[in-house]
Write a structure and sequence with these properties.
heterodimer, A: alpha/beta, eight-stranded mixed β-sheet, six-stranded mixed β-sheet, 22 strands, about 30% helix, globular, B: alpha/beta, FAD/NAD(P)-binding domain, Arc Repressor Mutant, subunit A, seven-stranded mixed β-sheet, five-stranded parallel β-sheet, about 35% helix
Chain lengths: ~375, ~475
């Protein structure tokens, strides 16, 4: 039996960042990861660092995260920060192709202004063309968040892991949690690689987090999905911003290597038990059509790879962040529903604040586990 | 050919080499609606590449390529006259577990659903990562032979063949006959046909002919005064292209000038599709290669999919014919055309023929173990050619704590390039296994997904037969783009 003060279940970016922040507060956390660090959503997402078009409940968290991204050196040290391959300030743009989409952009920016957020702007066709010369004539303009950018998700997650280890965190890979029990002396965490004891447990289990919660009789939606990405061979540099669709399924960016990563919510076939997912050609067609129509230069591109990452999906598309409803000293941070990567540098610090102080400065009430019924349903879907 | 909207086929065969042609011909004869997809314009695969044209028109080339090559014509003719549908110039870029094939052909792509699939994707040359192997002028000996078969082109500049395995000597012999100036052959095999290999002679009764052929190539090369040297620790040298090959022989470093260096360390199963299907694979210790786990009919761990020929483990072109027929018999049985009894009855002569082939294969595996460079590339040697990742960089990553081949890929980009990992997968796995002091089965292989052949965006955008009922994306909150995943 290994005893420590905190156990983090899940070696994704949120688990590693939580461990960093707990360690910075003087704790000695152990991260338990059933596969390898960054194996699922954290390592295989599209790498978008996006504030643009977020759910309004997530905006304060996302802004705080952006500050962290822009000062990764402070969090990780220069070498590990460089390894993240973060490129900020190139902007993310939602491209409008119809007047209805332009109208939506204007309404969205007006709503954001009314909430006090200035970072989204409507851009016209000329500004779009200036920023993205490769865009086709059918693109009329759109909505932009200029601070946004992208990073290398696998390398970023590894940097977070390495930083945690520098701070004395033990990261145990291939260590699968099989039981979670509360006793007088704190939590006992059973795994297939020995048992652990700790005062505090943080559940960062991603698509499998509901299984961890169920071990203590706490229920969440079991919904999950596999988001597909396809990648082209290297192309000459032709675009800086990350581009997403508004009504159309699209997200795309050109990486440092020159490859173009195309995604945006194309569904793969997830297999939660086998812990993998397949990509499905039929469903990739629409994305191929969209990039092809928006960016004629991609007509010459060749797709060399595709993959799909497994991820938790909450019915209201926002994460679960907060204390367990049934057991003290158990905290949840999961369910990022396909857009948790940008929040990577902040959620761990929120959790550390909650663990140490019982409160945090950033509003997170919307993410409370209490929004679900005890049997894991969302009472009134947030339309 | 070609109905580019073919929605279904009963039996799809991928690959038009000996296994594919034999399987297609027999399946069609047994009444199975069979479609054979192949990338080349004419049947034959790599071993019988361009067999029809070369047999009929190019007398000199036919003579150079020899009698074994000529045997492919009968197979091709049999296939052509069978009722099997032939789809040439067709790249299969996906096979799904449900039997859905993605095919691209003549600038169009479409999906077709098969009730059964036989993969006859054959072999590829084993990657041979020596220093300088990425220099222009260095290529596979098998690739050089393919050029000769396909277009009658042979090197006309000073050439060296280096490596081991029967194909290395065959190619050298053929090139010599075709007039290529051969500066030498560097044999990297640790055992020799004349030495330890002779201990396997009891295995070889009935194969005097094959053994004799191999020895006769060597004798002919010697007669033409082509130097044949034992060598290890090869390096291709040159600035903008290969100028020489250096190697260790007789305890000292030697150097031979060459404008063309043809490398060969045997062939390995081309298992890209079975790997993408997550079929069970085994590491074949004797052949030092991955192969899909198959039963006696070539059936894989997936219900709908079988593998025939070298793709299921290297057995050579003669064995491939019988393995193709066995897979076809099993397919015909599963598809209700013949009974189990008939299948088993018809299988007997094929199995007897395969048993006759087995000892020679064992002999070849035994003497032609891949060179050390394949198993243990030097630190500075590029392992992943597409992304230029060296063995040293990969070992350093393992030293930093990576324990999974897909972590190495994600971090270093090895295996992410245009070749889709074909040229580095087994080498990277070997480096990881050695560094962790574990076996290849524990290390596994790259996670592969479609496309298993590069697929132009334009073709995917206009994909025929895509299932429009398949929900393409998740709109969690319809009509509100801000509530997106």
């Amino acid at each position: 039996m290994t005893a420590t003060d905190a156990i983090v279940i899940g070696g994704g970016i949120h688990g590693c960042c939580t461990a960093i922040n707990l360690a910075l507060r003087g704790m000695r956390p152990i991260v338990l990861e059933k596969n390898t660090v960054g194996r699922h959503a954290s390592g295989v997402n599209a790498g978008g660092v996006r504030q643009l078009m977020r759910h309004t409940a997530e905006v304060p968290l996302s802004i705080a995260a952006m500050d962290k991204w822009e000062r990764l050196d402070d969090l990780l040290g220069p070498e590990l920060a460089k390894n993240c391959e973060f490129i900020g300030g190139v902007g993310q743009i939602g491209i409008a192709e119809s007047e209805a989409e332009m109208e939506w952009c204007r309404a969205r920016v007006a709503e954001m202004r009314s909430l006090g957020y200035e970072f989204e702007e409507v851009i016209d066709a000329a500004e779009l063309r200036r920023l993205v010369p490769a865009a086709a004539d059918i693109c009329r303009g759109g909505i932009i968040s200029r601070r946004d950018g992208h990073a290398n998700p696998f390398r970023t997650t590894q940097s977070f892991r390495s930083r945690a280890e520098q701070l004395g965190v033990r990261v145990m890979e291939r260590t699968r949690v099989t039981g979670l029990e509360k006793g007088d002396g704190g939590w006992t965490v059973a795994t297939d690689n020995g048992a652990f004891k700790a005062d505090v447990v943080v559940n960062c289990g991603g698509a499998w987090a509901w299984q961890v919660a169920a071990m203590v009789g706490e229920h969440f939606p079991k919904t999950h999905f596999a988001s597909t990405l396809m990648v082209t061979s290297r192309m000459p540099h032709f675009i800086d911003p990350v581009v997403i669709g508004i009504d159309r399924v699209l997200s795309f960016k050109q990486t440092e290597a020159g490859t173009v990563v195309i995604g945006g919510g194309i569904l793969g076939d997830p297999d939660l038990d086998a812990e993998t997912a397949d990509t499905v050609a039929d469903r990739m067609v629409v994305s191929a059509q969209t990039v092809y129509e928006f960016f004629p230069i991609l007509r010459r591109a060749t797709i060399v790879r595709s993959w799909a990452g497994l991820e938790a999906l909450m019915p209201d598309v926002i994460p679960v962040i907060g204390p367990s409803r049934v057991a003290p000293n158990l905290w949840h941070a999961f369910g990022f529903s396909g857009h948790g990567f940008q929040l990577g540098p902040i959620v761990g610090s929120v959790i550390a604040d909650l663990v140490a102080d019982g409160k945090c400065a950033i509003p997170i009430a919307a993410f409370s586990p209490t929004r679900f019924t005890l049997d894991g349903k969302l009472p009134s879907p947030a339309h | 050919m070609t109905d580019a909207t073919r929605p279904n086929c009963e039996l799809a065969i991928v690959g038009g080499g000996p296994a594919g042609m034999a399987a297609a011909a027999l399946a069609a004869e047994l009444g199975v609606e069979t479609v054979l997809f192949d990338e080349q314009p004419t049947p034959g695969g790599q071993v019988y590449r361009n067999i029809e044209a070369n047999s009929r028109t190019r007398d000199a080339l036919r003579d150079i390529l020899g009698a074994d090559y000529a045997k492919g014509l009968a197979l091709a003719e049999h296939f052509r006259s069978s009722g099997a549908v032939y789809e040439p110039l067709s790249a299969v870029w996906q096979v799904s577990a449900g039997g859905k094939l993605g095919v691209s052909q003549n600038g169009k792509a479409y999906l077709t659903k098969a009730r059964r699939v036989i993969l006859a994707t054959g072999a590829m040359e084993r990657p041979f990562p020596i220093p300088g192997w990425t220099l222009p002028g260095v290529m596979g000996a098998g690739a050089a032979q393919t050029l000769m078969k396909a277009s009658g082109v042979v090197p006309d500049r000073p050439t060296i063949v280096a490596g081991s395995g029967p194909l290395a000597y065959l190619v050298a012999f053929q090139l010599m006959k075709a007039g290529t100036p051969l500066n030498g052959i560097i044999d990297t095999s640790e055992k020799s046909v004349f030495g330890a290999g002779l201990a396997a002679i009891p295995l070889l009764s009935g194969f005097a002919g094959d053994l004799f052929k191999g020895l006769s190539w060597i004798a002919a090369l010697r007669k033409m005064r082509v130097p044949i040297l034992k060598g290890r620790k090869l390096a291709a040298e040159g600035v903008s292209r290969v100028e020489a090959v250096s190697f260790e022989s007789g305890g000292r470093r030697q150097r031979l000038p060459a404008s063309i260096l043809l490398l060969h360390e045997g062939v390995i199963p081309n298992n890209q599709i079975t790997a993408s299907l997550r079929c069970k694979h085994v590491w074949d210790m004797a052949q030092m290669a991955w192969r899909p786990h198959t039963d006696e009919w070539g059936a894989t761990s997936l219900d709908l999919v079988a593998v025939a020929g070298d793709g299921a483990g290297i057995g050579g072109s003669r064995a491939a014919v019988h393995r193709g027929r066995l897979a076809a018999l099993d397919a015909a049985c599963r598809l209700g055309r013949i009974s189990r009894g008939e299948r088993d009855e018809r299988a007997r002569p094929e199995r007897r023929a395969l048993q006759r082939e087995a000892p020679f294969r064992t002999f070849l595996d035994r003497i032609y173990r891949p060179a050390e460079a394949v198993r243990r590339p030097l630190e500075d040697t590029v392992v992943c050619r597409c992304e230029e990742v060296t063995a040293g960089e990969l070992r350093a990553l393992v030293g930093e704590g990576f324990t999974d081949i897909n972590q190495l890929k994600s971090f270093s980009r090895c295996g992410m390039g245009q070749c889709q990992g074909r040229m580095c997968g087994s080498t990277v796995a070997g480096i990881l296994a050695e560094s962790l002091a574990t076996d290849m089965e524990s290390v596994g292989y790259y996670r592969l997904r479609l496309p298993v052949k590069p697929l132009p965006v334009a073709l995917l955008a206009e994909l025929g037969n895509a299932d429009s009922g398949s929900r393409p994306s998740l709109q969690v909150v319809e009509g509100d783009p801000s509530q997106r995943i």
